[in-house]
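Data availability (excerpt). The following record was deposited with the supplementary files.
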Amino acid sequence: MHVGLRSYILKRLVYSFVLVVLIIMLNFAIFKMMPGDPIQFLTRPFQGKISPEEIQAQQNLLREIWGFGDPFHIQLAKYMRNLLTWNFGISIVGKTPIAELMARRIPYTLLLLGSATALSIVFGVLLGVAVIQRRGTIWDSCAVTSSLILGSLPTFWLGLVFLVVFFGFLQWFPNAGAFPRTWALGWPQALSSTSKSSPNALSIAFSFDIGQAWTLVGGYLYHLFLPLLTLTIFSFGSWLLLTRATMLDTIAEDYIVTARAKGLTERSVLYRHALKNASLPLITSAALSFGFILSGAIITETVFTYPGLGGWIWESIQTLDYQVLMAVFYVISICVVVANIVADILYGIIDPRIKYG
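Predicted structure:
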C-alpha cells in the first residue's frame, strides 16, 4: 500500500472517530430536547385505575431505574460509554435488549434496501448511458420525463397501487410480511443433522434438502417482490438522470473526440472512457446510498408490513421509544461515516489523477 494512502487512511480514521463522538453528543442532545415523555406514555394505561400519587410514584421509580434523574453530564457520559461499547440497553416498550431486536430486523432491511439500491444503480446507470447514445431524440425526452415522474410519486401511493393490482386483482403476490404465514407452524428445514454415538466416538452427519432450500428462498423472494419493485421504480430514475448529466459533461472532452478519431466503437468510447471518468459523482452517491441502507424504507416497510428497521423506526416514534431511536440513528451514522471513507479510497482507485498525502 502506498505511503500516502496509508497516512490518509490513518488520518481519516482519527477524524472519523472524532466525528462519531460528535454524532453521539448531537444525537443525545436532540433526543433530550424532543417533546414527549416515554415515562408518561408507559404509565398512561394506569390513569383512572390508580391514584395520581401512585402513578407519580411509578414514574419516579422508572426515572430512577433508567437514570433519567441523573445530571445531564452523567447521562451523557453513560450514553457515550454505552454506544461506544455497543451496549444499546433495553427497549422501553418491548422490554427486550435493543441489540437483539436490531439483529432480527437488520437482515430484512439489508435484503430489501440492498437489493433495491443495487438494482436501481445498475438499471439507472445502464439506461443513462443508453440515453446518452440517443441524446436529443424522443427516447431521451421520454427517459428524462418518465424518470422525473416516477421519482416524484409518493412511495406509499406507488406501493398501494401495486397492492391493488398484484394482490387485489391478480392475486399474484402477498400483501404483507417477509415470509409465508404458514411457516409459523413449521419452517422449511433445508439443512438437517443426525448424530450417532458409539462407546468411542460421536459422529454427526449433515444432509441438505434442495427442495426445502428452494421453498425457503422462494418464500422470501415471493414476499420481497412488491416492496422491492416499489423502491426500485421509485429510485432508479435519479441514477439515470445523474448518469446522463455527468456523461453530458464528459463526452465533449478532447480525449473522447480523440478516442472516436482512433476508430473505437461507440460502446467502447462510452463505457471504457466516458463512463469511467464520469463515475466519481456516481461513486459518491452510491456510497451514501449504501451508507443509508440501515435507515430502512420507513414508508414502504410500513405499507407492506415488512419487518425491517424502517418499520421499527416508525413503531418507535409512535411509542416514544427513544432508546431504540437513539441506537438506530447511531448505527446509521456509523454506516454513513464508513461509506464516505470507502468512497474516498475508491476515488484514487478509479481516477489515478487523485493523489493522497
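Summary of structural features: The chain has two domains: 23-85, 100-183+224-357.
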